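Need tokens for this chain, all 170 residues.
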Amino acid sequence: MISIKCPHCQVGLKVNEGKLPLGITSFKCPNCKQAIPMSLITGQGENGEESDTILLHPVKKETGRLIVVGNEYTPEQILVLTEGVHVIGRKSKGTLATLPIETSDRLMSRAHIRIEVKKDAQGGYKHYLSDNNSKNHTLYNHNYLDKDEVIVLNDGDEIVMGRTIVRFNV
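Here are the structure tokens for all 170 residues:
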């Protein structure tokens, strides 16, 4: 038996991996009826024999979004990310951002960060964050991003550009 949590409704479940049919890629949560994705991994058993282990993990089938936290300089906003490359920064005349943020925060560059959204092997999406050579740098979860550093975003991550706080959500 494997103990798991539904990634949608957070209900705890016990799954008998021996009763799962071969080739299954997901099953429905008995509580919320949402699909819980899973992967089949083949590995070596204790005696060197081949054994099948079923690993259950959520696959992000949706692209993420950025929630701009409102403050005295910036109204609350939601920026939806799609597959491809996005440059995020302060909206102004001649802005270089493909996803501009309405703000009077002059510490945010007009092209502050770059987020690339790519499909992964499981059919979900990965979101890659990097600083776009901004003048005042970027804080990611309270740490400055180094030049050319690329981070994979996770649900709930915090990005600070100047005085503007943005949260990543899937």
